[in-house]
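[09:14] KT: can someone run the structure on this one? pasting the chain below
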Amino acid sequence: MSGEKTEQPTAQRKQKARKEGQVARTPDLGAWAGMLAASMLLPLTVKIANGRVQELVAQVPRVIENPDETLMLRVLRDAMIAVGLSIAPLAASLLVLGIAAAAAQGGLHFASKLMVPKFSRLNPLQGIKRVVGPHALWEAVKAVFKTAVLGGVLYYSIRDLIPIMFGGGALPLEALLGEIVSAALTLIRSAALAGLVMAAADYAVARRRINKQIRMSKQEVKEEHKRSDGDPQLKGAIRSRQLAMSRNRMMAELPQADVVVVNPTHVAVALRYDPEKGAPRVIAKGAGAVAAKIRERAAEHRIPLVQDVPLARALHASCDIGAEVPPELYGAVARVLAFVMGLKARGSAAGLHRPFAAAAA
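[09:31] RB: done, structure tokens below
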């Protein structure tokens, strides 16, 4: 059936879907990527913060000895700047990573249509479908799988840490804290990697769902192509109007012609020769009904008609309106113009003349 949506969406349909916010996305991709980046940058952030904290702590005795308000405000300002500079690399990296994750999932688009109230979103049936439909089932499966994977990652990450923690008395406090921090970072990184794998699967499912939603029927594809290429009837009407305007301009310039070369009834080509503008030019041409109209207008304006079958055919085939006569036809055109000048000198140029009929035959 033509109403079944069996066809892949066109580029225009995809663009429209993006404007309406129908883009395959998963929020987990940016979240897990940010967690992985944070686990990589956190040691550097702590190291930078540690150095700045030590510098601030060194100023505390001086503040205690001289509890001046100006000095205290300066220390507070330095503390705030130190905190900002310490977390700036981590914050900037997470911001860039979040934007990159969004751009990787179909680009950055502002879906203004989502801000417009739409009563179909308040339809309780649509809400029930979202709760008990295939999408809800996938979300449930994803939640169970995510819990199982993260539980497994947590177990294997802290399995080796438990004996160390219970036997913590055998290790110095600094070494014990180092082991705990290392295990925590390993846990975060392992969880982030597992989360990225699940996010990739979630994105694939979301993309498949969106592509299914924006599929088109054969009739919709035809209408899309018609809108892109233009309505054939409208294009034909525009083309006919352009041709009519071109013929009108051509007929308006016809009285300036020196001669019309005919074939004798099928083809007509009007020539004008102005020595100051170079070679003779074709100012009108046509075949069939247009040729008949050219002959009629030529008779009205007493323009001589010269029958030369080979020349008329050659000019009609090789010359555009407004173009100069090609060099290979100079001789034949010069012969016709000389003949017409002779007729004008005798005062009998109007009408149809067959000076080369025998040669054409």
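[09:33] KT: thanks! The beta strands are 259-262, 267-272, 281-287, 305-307, 352-353.
[09:34] RB: yep, looked fine to me
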